[in-house]
Design goal:
DUF3576 domain-containing protein, four-stranded antiparallel beta sheet, 13% strand, 30% helix, alpha+beta, 3 helices, 159 residues, elongated, Alpha-D-Glucose-1,6-Bisphosphate, Chain A, domain 4
Length: 159
């Protein structure tokens, strides 16, 4: 009689456990019919093939006001652009000195609404080394962006 080696025992055990895991015993289905899949989106499990699928929605719209976006880029054109994301409405700039100014600034702009509204525009200015900027300066730049956005909208004839 042959003896079973440890490696063979481990392989057989692994196969048995794998086969047992494939069973549908714990599904709570007491009928002998096929198990109906749960088609709810939150109950659907992902598979390895989901990685290769194209899941982008072609009907996704940008939720950013184009006039505020373009006015922000126009007013802050003296600052070097570090990153822009029109889908989230974020513009991040590097340090730059405004024309006729002696202090450098960097700006972060967030446009959070497709409506042309002052509440949709959030502006953050920083001085060198992360120094804070006077609230009046921030308000003046916000007003310049809003004024430029209105001018662009009037020019397009959509007022």
């Amino acid at each position: 009689m042959k003896t079973v080696g440890a490696a063979q025992l481990m392989i057989v055990s692994t196969l048995c456990v794998g086969l047992a895991a494939c069973g549908g015993g714990g599904q709570g289905n007491s009928s002998n019919g096929p198990i109906e899949p749960d088609m709810r989106a939150d109950a659907r499990q992902t598979t390895i093939w989901d990685v290769f699928g194209n899941r982008t929605n072609p009907n996704t719209t940008v939720a950013v006001n184009k006039y505020l976006w373009n006015a922000s880029l126009d007013v802050l054109n003296f600052l070097p652009i570090q990153s822009v994301d029109p889908f989230t409405g974020v513009i991040v700039t590097g340090y730059g000195t405004p024309p006729g100014g002696g202090r450098s600034y960097r700006a972060t702009v967030k446009i959070s609404d497709p409506a042309m509204d002052a509440r949709a525009l959030k502006l953050s200015l920083q001085g060198p080394g992360g120094a804070s900027v006077a609230p009046g300066t921030v308000r003046a730049v916000e007003d310049a962006i809003l004024t430029r956005a209105r001018q662009m909208r009037i020019r397009d004839g959509k007022l």
